[in-house]
Amino acid sequence: MNPAHATVLLWVWGCLQAFEIVEKENIFQRTPCPAFLMFDNAAYLADMSFELPCHCKPEEVSAVVWYYQKDLGGSHTKVLTDFDGRVLTEESQVRVGSDMLVRFSIRMFSLLVFRAQPEDSGLYFCGTRKGDYFYAYDVDVQSSEGMVATFKDQGQEPFADEHHGSLHIFTTFWEWTPCDRCGVRGEQWRIGLCYLRSPGLSPRYRKTVPDVVSCGSQAVPGKLRAWAREHSPELLVQSCVVPCEQKAAREGFVAILSYVSKLGSPPWVPQVPIQFHWQRLGHGLIISCPGARPEHAVAWDKDHQYFYRTQYLEGVNRSMRVFIDHGNHLHIRFTQLSDRGIYYCWRQGVRVAGLRLGVTTRGRYQPSFSDPETRSAVELTLIGYLFITAVFVTIHLCRCCCYLFHCHPNFSS
């Protein structure tokens, strides 16, 4: 490509970007802000990332500020802004358990919250630096800890709806994910979140269906939330089989390597990028799939062994040493020598990465309170000391009581 063609392409690209910005501004001109602030209800599962668009704003406002309140009219308000030189956050840089103030980003007036937690549930306001609000959301992030899995291949059915007078509690399922593997038997699932229908909901919260909101919405009165807390999210799983797409270019590349090789057998060429990791014997390991989200179809294999959720999903068996959690992470508790091998990760039906795991009995291990195993060891040690102390004090109290009653049977004399 000569410099003239490159200049023309850059000019066209700049024009398209300017057109996109103009279109965005025209949308704000056509969408007037409501006179009375309403809240759009939205529900997500824990560890998901979500985007809240600011659908309306005055034309003179060039940058927005987002505000967060746990409850309407609360005294504590978090200000979410990218002013003062704040660097935009990327989802891949977010750590689990970090505060929301380092897990958000504002792009084109929209608020992005990465790896949301149940503590992030509440009200989000789009406004100005002076505190003028234009648009608002009622966000409900439901925890996956009590999530119930239902396997259709085993004849299981989702939970039945609950009826408590005029209160109707039910599960709303998302669309089925793609098959998590190709060429072999795979699985697909759909996430179901808790919703309820009641005539006594606050009219200030905008609903997609009349009188229906998510169970953790601020529109639900306090007396009804106790019923809603007992209805946990659900996961519906079923088997599937889909063919793999042929990759002629990759097969041709392998054929060339086989021809060039002077050995008796062709060289081993990994089909996906593979990382190497050494894990100390007896310690736990959590493996994440690159670019995967909780709503994605993710599968795990070890060499030629398939980890199906029917057997390896968290909660299926409490004694499992290897399991998959609801965030699509693979957990290995108390690593053993038999865990050595290559662990492959599938995302949306395509194998995308691998991890060659080696187990060693050598090396120094630096304990840290950020390590869950170190925290568990400290907690068990403290509990043991407290138990021994309680037994020691109880024995001495019993001895003192026996001494007093035996040596002084008659206190009046």
Automatic annotation (TrEMBL):
Annotated family: Belongs to the FAM187 family.
Organism lineage string: Eukaryota, Metazoa, Chordata, Craniata, Vertebrata
Entry's localization field: Membrane
Alphabetized PANTHER family for the sequence: FAM187, IG-LIKE V-TYPE DOMAIN-CONTAINING PROTEIN FAM187A
PROSITE patterns (alphabetical): IG_LIKE
InterPro entries recorded: FAM187A/B, Ig-like_dom, Ig-like_dom_sf, Ig-like_fold, Ig_sub, Ig_V-set
UniProt key word Cytoplasm: no
Topology class, membrane: Single-pass type I membrane protein
Pfam families hit by this protein: V-set (PF07686)
Protein keywords: Glycoprotein, Membrane, Signal, Transmembrane, Transmembrane helix
UniProt-recorded name of the protein: Family with sequence similarity 187 member A
Domain Ig-like residues, every copy: 267-345
